[in-house]
Amino acid sequence: MTASLAYLNARFGLSQDAWTIYNAVTITRKAARTETQDRLNLFYLFEEHATNPKSAHTPFLIVPADPDHPKCQTQWTYAEAYETVLKYARWLAEVHGVRKNEIVAMDITNKPMFLWVWFALWSLGAKPAFINTNLRSNAFVHCVRVSTARLLLVDPQIRDVLDDETKLELDADGRGRAVDAIILDTDVEPSISALSPYRAPDEARSGEKLNSVSMLIYTSGTTGLPKAANVTWGKTLAGTHYFPRLLELTPRDRYFTAMPLYHSSASVLGVCQALGAACAIVIAPKFSPRTYMKLVCETEATVIQYIGEACRYLLSSPPSPYDRAHRVRVAFGNGMRPDVWQRFKDRFGIPNICEFYGATEGPGATAVYERNGFLLGAIGRSGAVTRLLMGGVSVLVKHDHTTDLPYRDPRTNFCVKCARNEPGELITQLDAANIADKFQGYLGNDKASSSKILRDVFKKGDAYYRTGDLQRLDPDGRWWFVDRVGDTFRWKSENVSTAEVSEALGSHAAIREANVYGVQLPHHDGRAGCAAVGLVEGRELDGSVRRELAALARKRLPRYAVPLFLRVMRELEVTGTMKHQKVVLRDEGVDPGKTGRDEMFWLPPGADAYEPFGGEEWARLVGGDARL
Length: 628
Description:
Layout: H1 2-12, H2 14-36, H3 43-51, E1 59-62, E2 75-77, H4 78-95, E3 103-107, H5 112-123, E4 127-130, H6 137-147, E5 151-154, H7 164-170, E6 180-183, H8 188-193, E7 213-218, E8 228-232, H9 233-247, E9 254-257, H10 267-277, E10 280-283, H11 292-298, E11 303-307, H12 308-316, E12 330-334, H13 338-348, E13 352-357, E14 366-370, E15 380-381, H14 384-390, E16 394-397, E17 399-400, E18 405-406, E19 424-430, H15 446-451, E20 453-455, E21 463-473, E22 478-484, E23 489-491, E24 494-496, H16 498-506, E25 511-519, E26 528-535, H17 543-556, E27 565-568, H18 583-588, E28 599-602, E29 611-612, H19 615-622
């Protein structure tokens, strides 16, 4: 009997479904109750921990020690952090006149000041706009302007963002009101520390709803200028209460992140998670594969946060005595590729991986807690009960790679659901009469917001949110990421998944990372596969490696998916959250006149290894003398 129940549970995911449904219902009720009490603002939870004797003197924020400044404070209890936040609140309210519902732009790196400003704004009923600290010039000005902020707070570490041209752009010049840019210099913090704490009255935080905006977080801007996503209190509450249960966080945990705080991974799913469990958040200034595990050990972290490419960088770093000297029980994040997953666990001795899938602005998310290999590489699992009750909420539909839109049946003009194991775009059901209940879109960009909504999907009048991600659902209810819409390209009349090719090449010991995309060639239809690769330190793309890569690609991939070109790059351009930039690489293609000094190789028909590719080979393609 016990064996039969265990089999049924494993086969149909019954216990996981029970856990998911129970917690979803519990947290939904909690959120509704909090809304009724008019205490949605997470400042109240922060205040509760800071004033409760059980948690007031436990660590809230830990930063790794700075060897250059050994006397600097590196740890704050909830009570100490609360007092600091209230001092910042007085400074913002009295010196800069910040008021309820005002948006204030923050361009601050990973440091305690980020949290002090963020929570001080919430305490005043104001809303932060988290600016990507890597942005400069036009993209930076765009993000500040889109936020509607009249006040911009800038970290002195990146003061170069405010050059003369940018300052002029932020002045009132017919495109909007003037933005008051304040550099938070070394003399600012002491002056704030001298102030007395100020707790704004509850009225300053009143009137919030679950779909009210709590903050602005920007998209990565891989396909254009970043968009300001409206992140609601409902979304922040999910990060605060649901994921800590999934990770089984307790007040004794120390949650380590080196991801940028301006992104939802480190803020909503990092700081807010720690807040939900009343545990400590450990914030590293930046991600460095050479020092990451050392800092994890020194700060006694028990949970670490990752982004997939960061794990690949860690694997390519030299072994160190810190690799397995830590206390980490689980790694949490998104984008961990299957070819990295087990190698990462084995090298660093981390027993559990919790992988989630979701978008900052999107409704819903999935996650898996992998312990024994069954869920390795998956991004979610739906058991039989979940599929029965909620099967129509998240649906995969056939995708048209020619238009990059969901395919519609020419007879009915409705979308077509995918069969099991068939890749398709994930869409999520919305209330057609109240889209904003689950999707609030992008501030000041109605066109981009509308483009995410698909109407008349399965019947007239219905509405769904487009994730822009191709996934597949296997017979065991596991969800697998396939590719981003637009990244998949067609070659030889077949669809090539860039993620699949990247995974195959990345399994070679010489390849640190591979950014795969399709390039147009003269006299050829479709796009040929090209991989911009970064090499492991000390490795070269010599003849033997080029031969091994050709054999590996042909073994692991369908013939049409084998990349025909390799571009060796010293550094691959990525966003602050380590997403590969592809637009420029696609536009440059393989024309030697556009690829600069990067080494190029190709795999001509019949060759058993990638061969050098230059002006002569390009001329053959242009002249039609070479066919691939």
